Amino acid sequence: MRRASARLGHALLVLWGALTLTFLALHLGRGSVVDAIVGNNTQVTDEVRDRIAREHGLGEPLWWQYLSYLGRLLRADLGTSYQLNMPVRDAIAAQLPPTLQLMGAATGIAVLTTLAVAVATTRRPSWIRGPVTLLEVAGVALPQFWLAILLLTVFSFGLHWFPAFGDGPASLVLPAVALAVPMAGVLSQILRDGLERALEQPFATTARARGQGERGVLLRHALRHALPPVVTLFGLLLGGMIGGTVVVERVFSRPGVGVLLLNAVTGKDIPVVLGVVALTAAGYVTLNALVDLLYPVLDPRLRAAGPAPAVPGLRVEG
């Protein structure tokens, strides 16, 4: 309970910091706050500008404006986009389902690929591990924009296996793979390293002495000990996946929050930008808090208060 309370407090502190930065970005930038909120919309009347000033309390002290801003966020009031002529909350809600669908598919592909590749290449000879490691490094190093174009060129325009655009399940495969490859490339290396470390520990030797085969030791014992560092990194990568959706959704002409954010940045629609930033910060903090709560499930020894496992690997004594 103490560990969960500490993690929750840390998550709320991070979220508060992110939301405070969005407030400062709006109020301490060049020009007036009203101009920043209106953006490129030149058809806003003086009456509307006065209403914006009243709604945001721009005549009040800065500390009052800050408390009012936090209060609006607590009510899920992200402001109004005067370029889209609709509340920011509604604009994000309309684009959120396709993005969550894409991220969910990409997460599933990344997790399955990580487990399959790491388990299949653990303690394998170099002629097997070498090409796999090269593909992992290439998947991480290749810019996501080029990876998405490469997938389109080969599997859509060349082989005609998947449609380049559309709304069906088949059209989701290539963008999900483009999002999943960098994540799987990192996680599979970490998991394989953790598995090889775990197989050298005394508990693995004991399991072998009891007659259990190498594959059984790997799947029933080593995998559980190797997962916590992977889960740590998984939470960080998953929370930052929204950045990749901006690129992938644009390349594959998919609707979503990424495209909404990109259009808002291009059109200087500051309320939408700040709304997406606030939503992303909340999602990132929530995901990492859930990951922290998973540690005691993966390893009962962590139910006692203690630090989260380091990413490079988990050393087990006995």
Automatic annotation (TrEMBL):
Report whether Transmembrane shows up as a keyword of the record: yes
Residue ranges spanning the membrane: these are 102-122, 134-160, 172-191, 230-252, 272-295
Extract the Pfam families matched here: BPD_transp_1
| Organism domain of life | Bacteria
Give the way it sits in the membrane. Answer: Multi-pass membrane protein
Gene3D superfamilies associated with the record: MetI-like
Keyword list, A-Z: Cell membrane, Membrane, Transmembrane, Transmembrane helix, Transport
Where is each ABC transmembrane type-1 domain found? 96-295
SUPFAM superfamilies (UniProt xref) = MetI-like
Its subcellular locations are:
Cell membrane
InterPro entries for the chain: MetI-like, MetI-like_sf
Q: Which PANTHER family match?
A: DIPEPTIDE TRANSPORT SYSTEM PERMEASE PROTEIN DPPB-RELATED (PTHR43163)
What the record says about family reads: Belongs to the binding-protein-dependent transport system permease family.
According to UniProt, the name of this protein is ABC transporter permease
Q: Which organism is it from?
A: Plantactinospora endophytica
Gene it is expressed from = ddpB_2
